[in-house]
Amino acid sequence: MPAVKVPRREAETVKRKLKRLGLYDGKRRPKRGDGYVLLPVINDPLIEELDYEVLPLELSLRPERQLYKNLEGILAGRLSREELEYLRRYDVIGDIAVIQIPSEIEHRTEDIIWGLRKVHPFLKVIARKGFHKGAFRIREYSIVWGEKRLETVHKENGVWVKVDLSKAFFNPRMKGERYRLAQLVRDGERILIPFAGVLPYALVIARYRRVKITAIELNREAYKLGLENIELNREKLKGEIEFIHGDAFKLLPELPTYDRVISPTPRGVDALRLTLEKANGWLHYYDFVHEERVDAFRRRIIGECRRLGRDCSVRIKKVSDFKPHVFKVCADVEISVRSD
Ligand SMILES: C[S@@+](CC[C@H](N)C(=O)[O-])C[C@H]1O[C@@H](n2cnc3c(N)ncnc32)[C@H](O)[C@@H]1O
């Protein structure tokens, strides 16, 4: 895969442009040189038309992609080329590996277990993952190897996160997103996080910033794990976390406004107005949006802001692929009081 070489000061702008054009290769890592940055791009003739210096370079894969490649490499001797096509990216959460095994390669489960244990000798559990269910967004899992538990402690962004995948939602792939938000936050902010789960966002932000966070979660099991997580990380946290067990839709109307609201909204739930009303400076609102509906989503946010008598600017960031043509996105909404 090629890379484009751009002056360091232009790197962020060019990266955004490449992403917009669908030419950026997010599976690989950019590389910094002396005054320049090499940005990974996909093989596409359009690149040559953009007037950047294009180099025939193979930039290294992001660590999670590299691990996946390692598994694929190890299994290449056991699975046919066609079967390898069905192999999916997997996650390692603490000492548990979770992997989707499509029915087409179900008969290869033993080989996949063997491969995963070779790549990660420390694993204690391997679980096959199903789909998220219900308002608490808990996934279905079946343990295919190892100890019969789905509880573990995962390390992310310098904090410990105790999880029980059979009782509460947790997505390790949001690691980069949590780091991004922590970097946007400034010391002194008051932050509200409804739909807080076992507290991964709150912990990462409080680790980096002296802030006051109010977090809300309805699932009692997630709430209990979250309380344990505050204790587990007590020494590391610069910020304070107040954790409330309850329904965000009932509690938020009673709460004051905050400098920043972060809404890791459960899929299928519409909490836009609810959370916008509580945000004085910023709202980061997560949702699942079809690629053709991104502009409509932006217009809806702007419309809601206006109804609340506020102005806002909205930047919509693609966070991950969800299914063909549908993305998980985060709307970063900057809110101000209307001047007219
Ligand atoms: C998509 S998960 C996000 C969890 C967490 N922020 C994370 O990223 O790991 C949504 C969370 O909202 C919780 N939830 C669902 N409905 C809720 C409600 N009405 N009030 C508070 N929490 C709710 C679910 O139990 C789940 O933990």
Architecture overview:
By secondary structure, the chain is α/β, with parallel strands linked by helices. It folds into three domains: 3-55, 2-Layer Sandwich (Alpha-Beta Plaits); 63-149, Met-10+ protein-like domains (GMP Synthetase, Chain A, domain 3); 167-337, Rossmann fold (3-Layer(aba) Sandwich). The protein has ten helices and 17 strands. The chain has a seven-stranded mixed beta sheet, sandwiched between helices. It has a four-stranded antiparallel beta sheet with strand order 2-3-1-4, with helices on one face. Strand 11 (190-193), helix 6 and strand 12 form a beta-alpha-beta unit. The radius of gyration is 22 Å and the shape is globular. The mean pLDDT is 93. Bound molecules: S-adenosylmethionine. S-adenosylmethionine binds at residues 135-137, 169-171, 174, 194-197, 200-201, 216-219, 222, 247-249, 264, 266.
What's the short version?
By secondary structure, the protein is an alpha/beta fold.
Labels describing this entry:
340 residues, alpha/beta, Alpha-Beta Plaits, GMP Synthetase, Chain A, domain 3, Rossmann fold, 3 domains, seven-stranded mixed beta sheet, four-stranded antiparallel beta sheet, 17 strands, binds S-adenosylmethionine
Question: CATH topology of the largest domain, anyone?
Answer: Rossmann fold
Mean pLDDT: 93
Task: Please trace the helix and strand order, writing H or E for each element.
Answer: EHEEEHHEEHEEEEHEHEHEHEHEHEE
User: Percent range for helical residues?
Assistant: 25-40%
- What is the number of helices? 10
What profile does the largest beta sheet have?
Answer: 7 strands, mixed
- % residues in beta strands: 25-35%
